[in-house]
Design a protein that fits this description.
The protein is an alpha/beta fold. The chain contains 21 helices and 16 strands. It comes from Psychrosphaera saromensis.
Length: about 650
């Protein structure tokens, strides 16, 4: 028995020694070999052509550390596999793959202006000719990859000759560098500093930290160091706003917009003279957006006021948001661009303000916003509305969401009742329909409702009807607020002079496909991405039903062509079409969540996560095995049509 114990202790001792030696070898290799990877990532950083400032340079130097820490975490995960001396050399494989992907992505991004994802790899394997890569480039790649592997191999073979490091302190120092860099990004992101935030679109799978809550605390505690942003806009920002060249990657718009003022007929001239107007009558624009409102919850029972509007308007019954989440849904709505462009706009938000609001303001429109959502997140306020004074930006946040919605709508109604001689653009975004759904008790008309709105977190396959009823009650409430707005517009005779658009940022799912999906942002089926769209043109009284595929990207070109007669082809500034001049066929749409994107083609979803999925937009259980690589390539081209190559 004693001998067995000695043998067991010997095995344990040698196993632990082997594990310690292997772990030391692993992490020393990761650290030393990352010097080469640092150079690869620096190539992405240098290609961004960001303005040079002290904080920007310090931040740029810390960016590669982000990828180093990711690889350190991966190495920790692999320790149970690579614990022995014989297996530890396998660390070369993931390190080589990482370096190989970085080099490939650098050249793909330089040529096509998108980063490699799993769907692109799938296309490469199944539609090589369609990608357009020559055999000579393949041969050159093989040579380059051989050199990369050789570099890593040489480092690994000589790892024992390199200085031994106290890895605990080295990695702690590296982590502190990471924190410093991400701290600079948090501040730079808050203040829209181009020398800091411009790098993000150039880097593959890079998601730097942001924190509006942290910045709010710092502004409150150290106002001299972190001052509140002044809506009057600084001279530095004004110089950006007045710049005729966007620089960097973006070429937005491709050509300046040409939106001529229409000639006045005699009757209009007399009308303008009586009203003391110096410009021709232009239709007002109202965009009314309800959070998380899915397409099949627009009917006479749940949303009666909007349903009645649809009886004298155009209703688009095959309409999709550009996002399964708010940020990308609103981006596609107010830019008319695929959501994959958002990172480029975010990197210089004032410079790349939405052409919709920028052009309408130039045409003499008053721009007004009424929302209970904090659009300062993700730089949306700056991107969508640029320089906007507080008097035109109503954003109550102090009470419960449904109360804030009422406050915002009351402000809108007050403004509608205030006479003006200028045309206006009013954007309304209400949030009571976001989980957890809120409404006054009198709107509790669909029962039973779920007593615990978080219950699905513990039972993903629970009955969704009670929570769905709760959600429908919140839709009914916001519909009543729209009814109040519409009633005032009728009283003030604005209905016939206004282009009215009613829609949502994305949908909402309640385990509809029995796969355990709830809310939004988790897949791209119709429940999370198909939304209502009702458009009432000025003077329109007859209903119209449109069944062709349409998307949020079609709304901007519709407004610009319908209201101010912009003559440019939509491809100059948008990924979409005029809703009233749709093509016979379109390639499809691109939809994004926070973590993923998908291509909607012929009612099939092609999702681009680590696990490539293709399924019916109608039902996630219906898998698609036949990829339309031609249309996928065409949509990918649209992702870079407004980028400098």
């Amino acid at each position: 028995m004693l001998e067995v114990k000695k043998i067991w202790l010997y095995i344990q001792k040698n196993t632990l020694l082997s594990l310690k030696q292997s772990t030391s070898t692993l992490f020393h290799f990761v650290f030393y070999s990352f010097a080469f990877t640092y150079l690869l990532i620096s190539a992405f950083v240098l290609s961004s052509d960001a303005p040079l400032t002290f904080s920007g340079i310090i931040y740029a130097l810390t960016i590669p550390v982000y990828y180093y820490l990711i690889f350190v975490v991966l190495t920790v995960v692999l320790i149970p596999i690579l614990w022995s001396k014989k297996l530890v050399a396998l660390i070369l494989l993931p390190k080589f793959l990482m370096d190989m992907m970085l080099i490939a992505d650098y050249f793909i991004f330089d040529i096509y202006r998108f980063h490699i994802d799993m769907l692109f790899i799938n296309m490469l394997l199944h539609d090589f000719k369609g990608i357009g890569i020559s055999i000579w480039l393949v041969l050159l790649s093989l040579v380059v990859y051989s050199i990369i592997f050789l570099i890593n191999f040489v480092i690994y073979k000589n790892i024992k000759r390199l200085p031994k490091l106290r890895l605990k302190w080295v990695n702690l120092a590296v982590f502190l560098v990471f924190i410093i860099g991400q701290g600079i990004h948090i501040v730079g992101y808050e203040y829209k500093t181009p020398s800091v935030i411009r790098y993000t679109p150039y880097l593959p799978y890079y998601a730097p930290l942001t924190s509006s809550s942290l910045m709010d605390k710092l502004k409150a505690k150290y106002p001299s160091v972190f001052p509140q942003q002044d809506n009057s806009v600084s001279d530095g920002i004004n110089s950006i706003l007045s710049s005729s060249s966007t620089g960097g990657l973006l070429n937005y718009p491709i050509n300046p917009l040409t939106c001529p003022t229409p000639e006045l007929d005699a009757a209009s001239q007399v009308k303008n003279l009586k009203q003391k107007q110096s410009q021709p009558n232009k239709p007002n624009v109202l965009i009314f957006v309800m959070e998380s409102w899915r397409q099949d919850v627009m009917d006479k029972d749940v949303s009666p006021h909007i349903f009645n509007l649809a009886q004298q308007a155009s209703q688009f019954n095959n309409h999709y948001s550009g996002g399964s989440v708010t940020v990308n849904g609103l981006f596609s709505l107010l830019y008319g661009l695929h959501p994959t462009y958002r990172d480029y706009m975010t990197s210089t938000p004032y410079q790349n303000q939405s052409l919709l609001t920028k052009t309408l303001a130039q045409q003499g429109y008053d721009i007004d916003v009424y929302t209970s959502s904090n659009l300062d997140r993700f730089a949306l306020k700056a991107m969508f509305f640029g320089k906007i004074n507080d008097e035109h930006y109503v954003n109550p946040l102090n009470e419960q969401v449904y109360i804030n919605d009422k406050v915002a709508v009351d402000a809108l109604i007050k403004d509608l009742k205030t006479p003006t001689t200028k045309p206006w653009f009013k954007f309304v975004f209400l949030s009571a329909t976001h989980h957890n759904y809120q409404y006054p008790k009198k709107h509790k008309i669909f029962t039973p409702v779920e007593s615990n709105p978080e219950a699905f977190l513990f039972d993903k396959h629970m009955d969704g009807k009670p929570l769905f009823n709760d959600y429908k009650n919140s839709v009914h409430y916001l519909d009543s607020l729209f009814g109040d707005v519409w009633s005032v517009m009728k009283q003030t005779n604005m209905v016939q002079d206004t282009l009215t658009i009613v829609t949502s940022d994305h949908g909402e799912e309640f385990n509809d496909d029995n796969k355990g999906y709830w809310g939004h942002g988790s897949n791209f089926t119709k429940y999370q991405t198909a939304v209502p769209l009702i458009v009432k043109k000025p003077q329109q009284s007859e209903p119209e039903r449109v069944t062709e595929l349409t998307g949020h990207i079609d709304i901007v070109p519709t407004i610009l062509q319908t209201t101010i007669n912009c003559q440019n082809p939509t491809t100059d500034y948008s990924s979409g079409f005029n809703l009233f001049d749709l093509p016979e066929q379109r390639e499809g749409l691109i939809i994004s969540s926070y973590k993923d994107k998908a291509y909607l083609i012929d009612e099939q979803i092609y999702a681009t996560g680590l696990n490539i999925q293709s399924y019916s937009v109608e039902d996630i259980n219906k898998e698609n095995e036949h990829f339309n690589y031609k249309k996928l390539s065409q949509l990918k081209e649209q992702e870079s049509s407004l980028l400098n190559h």
